[in-house]
Amino acid sequence: TSDALLVFTPSGRRGRFPVGTPILTAARSLGVDIDSVCGGRGICGRCQVVLSEGEFAKHGLTSRAGHLSPWSAVEERYRSKRGMKAGRRLSCTATLQGDAVIDVPADSQVHKQVVRKRAEVRAIEMNPATRLHYLEVEEPDMHKPQGDLERVQAALAAQWGIEGAAADLDVIRVLQAALRKGGFRITVAVHEDRAGPRIVAVWPDFRDRIYGLAIDVGSTTIAAHLCDLASGEVVASAGVMNPQIRFGEDLMSRVSYVLMNPGGDREMTAAVREAISDLAAEVAAEAGIAPGDILEAVFVGNPIMHHLLLGIDPSELGGAPFALAAGTAQSLRASELDLKLHPGARVYVLPCIAGHVGADTAAVALSETPYLSDEIALIVDVGTNAEILLGNRHRLLAASSPTGPAFEGAQISCGQRAAPGAIERVRIDRETLEPRFKVIGCDLWSNEPGFAQAVAGIGVTGICGSGIIEALAEMYLSGLIRADGIVDGTKGARTHRIAGEGRTFSYLLHDGDPAVRITQGDVRAIQLAKGALYAGARLLMDHLGIDRVERVTLAGAFGSHIDPVYAMVLGLIPDCDPAKVGSAGNAAGTGARIALLNTAARAEIEDVVRRIEKIETAVEPKFQEHFVGAMAIPHATAPYTELAK
Ligand code: FES
C-alpha cells in the first residue's frame, strides 16, 4: 500500500494517508491544531512542524524512517526571506513520503498556551475572537453575476471553512478597492462571537499580525496591556492617571459632580475615552505598530468607571439601592466609544457583579478562578472600596466594603501614595522601641550605613499604605498601641518618640523634614478601614456558614505590597494559615487579558457572574456588629464582650 502512518505530537492523533499528502491537510482531517494565516500558500510561516523520529518507539511505529518530501521551492523562499529554526518545515508544503511522527511546536498551535507570568494562577489558552485570513478571491465574471462581497464570502467558506460571514458596512465600502489593489488577494480579519462570524477589516495585501488591548479603568489610574493576538504575548504596557480626577478625587465625588453639574457625566466620559485613545497610541508606539493595528479591546472597571466609559449616567450608583443600568457583559464597536483604534475594532466589557462590585472584580474572579476550586478562598481587592469574593466551586459570594482611602495613604497625617520617598517597610525594636524603615526607591534600611546618602536624592517624604500597616502592626507588637487602638502614652517613659498631643499621643517614626509621625488619628483611620474590610469578610463567612477560610488572596496594588502576616496581625483579614495567604498582583488586569485572548473565558465569566450571590453590606445589621468588633486589634470575637470592658 502507498499509505503511510502519520502520528502528531503532542496531541497523539494519528491516521493513514496516501504518500504525497500535505502534512497540513492530514492535520486538518485529524483535527490537529495547526495555525495558518495564509491558507497554505507558504507566506505566513505559522504552520511550522518538526519531524521527530525519536518518538517512533513510543508511538508503536515499525518503520525506522520518517519521511517528508525534500524542501520545496516555496519553503526555500520562505526560509531565505524570513528564516526558520533548524529542523522545521512548513506543513502546508511538506508532504508525507512514509511513516512519520510530526511534532507541532506550541508556537504553531492556534490554541497555544501563553507563557505564564509570576503570580498567575491559570494558564491562558489562546482562542482570540478576531483572526486573520488570507484569501484568493475569484475575479468578477459577466457570466456569473455576483457581488464582490459574495465572492469573498465564498472564498472564506471554501478556503477557511467559515460559512455565512457577515461584513461591516465600513468593510464593504473599501472592499472593491482592496480587491483590485491586491489583485484579488486580500487579508480579512474575522471577528466571531455569539452573533456569528463577521468581517471587520480588510487589507489589500498579506497581513499576519493584529493586536488587542486589555484595559483596567481604575478611578485613579488606567492601565493598558497591548497583546499580540497570535502569540498572546504582552508587547507593551503603560498606565496614565485617570483624567476624571479633576472632577473628583474618589468615586462618590465624581457621582456628586454629575448630580450637581448636568452634563458632567458626558465631560467625564469624553475625558476617559480620550485618555484611553492616548494610552492606545502610546503602547502602539512602544511596540512599533500603528493604533490601527489594534482590532480588539477588553475593558474592566468598577461600576462607576464602567458606566462613565460606556457613556451611561452613573447617578443611580450614588445611593441605595445602587442599581446598575446593565450588569451584563457588553460587546460593541470601538467606534461607538470614540476610541481611536482600527475602525472595525471590537470592544468587550466584562459583566458587573452588582451595584458596587464591578467588572474589575469579575476579572479578578476570572484570573483567580475560585469557582473551580474545592478550597474555600477569600479574595480581597483593596482600594477605596474593598471588593470581596468568598467561596469555592459550590458557592461564590461577593460584597463590597467601604474601606475609604486610608489604605492608599489618604486620611493619614503623613500619608502619601506609594511613590519614591514613601516609607513602605517598618520594624520597631521591642526593647528600645527604636524604629527602622525602608523607603520606596532605596534598598537600604534606615539604620544601615549609607542610608542618608542613598535617599539624599529622593528624601523621606511620607508613608504609604503598606508602610502604615507595618508601622501599626509593629507598634501593636511592641506594646505601643493597645488592642483598642489607643497609642499608649505611658510608653513615653521608655522612649522620647512618644509625644503627647492634647489628650492623645503619637509615635515619631522619622525625625526629619518632614517629620513622619503616627498619630492617634492615623490609627483610628486604619482601624475604620480595616474594620470595614474585616467585617465584610466576616459577613460573607456568616452567609457561607463557616468560621475559618482556607486561603486568602490579596489582589490589587495595595494587596500586592502589604505583607500578609502584618495584615493578619492587624486583623485586616480573618485568620488563616499564613502559608495560604498570598498576593495576586494585578489580578483585574490579568482577568482582562484572559478575556482578550480567549473568547471561551468570556462565556465562562458571564456564567460565573450570573451564579455569584451578591451580598449588600449596607443593609445587613450583622455588618455593623462585625464592624464594631473588628475595630479592635487584631479583632474581637462575637459577641464582642471584650469591647464592653
Ligand atoms: Fe502559511 Fe504554511 S500555512 S506558510
Automatic annotation (TrEMBL):
It comes from the Bacteria. PANTHER family: IRON-SULFUR CLUSTER PROTEIN, IRON-SULFUR CLUSTER-BINDING PROTEIN-RELATED. Gene3D superfamilies: 3.10.20.30, 3.10.20.880, Domain of unknown function (DUF4445). InterPro entries: 2Fe-2S_ferredoxin-like_sf, 2Fe-2S_ferredoxin-type, ATPase_NBD, Beta-grasp_dom_sf, Corrinoid_activation_enz, Raco-like_middle, Raco-like_middle_sf, RACo_C. Residues 4-108 form the 2Fe-2S ferredoxin-type domain. It comes from Futiania mangrovi. This is ASKHA domain-containing protein. Transmembrane segments: none annotated.
